[in-house]
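Could you help me review a protein record that somebody else here produced? What it holds is a sequence and that sequence's fold in token form. I need someone to confirm that the token line plausibly describes how this chain folds. Take the sequence as given and treat only the tokens as open to question. This is what I was given:
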Amino acid sequence: MLGPKERKGALLVGLCACAALVLLIPAGCAARTGTEPLTVSSGDDHGVAVATTDAPEEPSVASSNRSDSQASQEECGTEGWEALGPEIRSAFEDAAQALKGLTVYIPTCLPADARLAEASQVGTRARAVVAVESEGGVLEFQQVIQGDMGDLPAERVDLADGRRASVYRVLGGILVQWAEGDKWYGVYATGFSREKVLQVAEVCVPRQESR
């Protein structure tokens, strides 16, 4: 049986322990619900810091965002090529408006240095032509050509989308020409290799403005 002094001492010890427990419990809860990293066991009794779910770390702008040119090149699939700039796109849109009800072929991508140029319309009677300069050469996109190249010798090729095209060597340049129904279209180039002109023809897609 404890005497009066012993009971008093035990009571004081118990009160101190309860007070310490009351102080520790809120502190522990705050550590788990705040923005400070939690610490968990790694299996060898050493603490490992992890981020809390209450305050996820935002990715940096540099790592999460690509430049427009990077994104454009990836979409085009060809290094050094980009989607059409606003001036060139506007020129093709003007051609589409001028030929409402008829199909026009517009390239999805061009070399990054492409810029508008004067059209020569060599060897054609196209109803609309958009010309661009690039890499020291000129590309002319000929829309709705009146007639084909007749008996001029040609190399027949199949483009990726199933179009049958003819490749001509005309007046020091290369013409890739194809038909849609009874309408003819082409890309005439000077200063470019046959392979590059075919590559440009490959990325031309049809568009038609309603009447």
Summary: The chain has a mean pLDDT of 73. The CA atoms of residues 58 and 112 lie 33 Å apart. Helices lie at 4-33, 61-64, 68-76, 86-98, 194-202.
